[in-house]
């Protein structure tokens, strides 16, 4: 019987996902600092390594090339000790992650955050609908085993602090199955 990738890693990998504005990058950065894990912001990686197929004028963002991103990350993910942050999750191989965190934010808080970022009304509306209909939570549940997907509230600094404590505790107790 073949071993799972997580059985061979010495450290786990975490995916932090959620609608834009839910605090993914803030949470991932703070968690990486607290644990000395590597933080991989997929948006930054796409820009730095040119892992896209052009620009989407309607949503004011790059059109990510999912295959190029996965090829770029393959070796790094095998090592473990990574915290990946991105607003999508269904294209990443299931074997990469030991914990998938979906951050969720109250709509009034989210609207204010997206407005402060200068998002267009179209982009705000699209992201608000995603949050209302829990699109990313459903995507995570459909893409990963039930036991590794967790939804965490991310409305305030206190929520982020609590989430960091929860995830740090999970990381310190994580063990590979012999």
Automatic annotation (TrEMBL):
HAMAP family: Adenylate_kinase_AK6. Broad-specificity nucleoside monophosphate (NMP) kinase that catalyzes the reversible transfer of the terminal phosphate group between nucleoside triphosphates and monophosphates. Has also ATPase activity. Involved in the late cytoplasmic maturation steps of the 40S ribosomal particles, specifically 18S rRNA maturation. While NMP activity is not required for ribosome maturation, ATPase activity is. Associates transiently with small ribosomal subunit protein uS11. ATP hydrolysis breaks the interaction with uS11. It comes from Populus tomentosa. InterPro entries: Adenyl_kinase_AK6, P-loop_NTPase. Residues 41-64 are annotated as: NMPbind. It is found in: Cytoplasm; Nucleus. This is Adenylate kinase isoenzyme 6 homolog. It catalyses: ATP + H2O = ADP + phosphate + H(+); AMP + ATP = 2 ADP. It is an enzyme of class 2 (transferase). Its main location: cytoplasm.
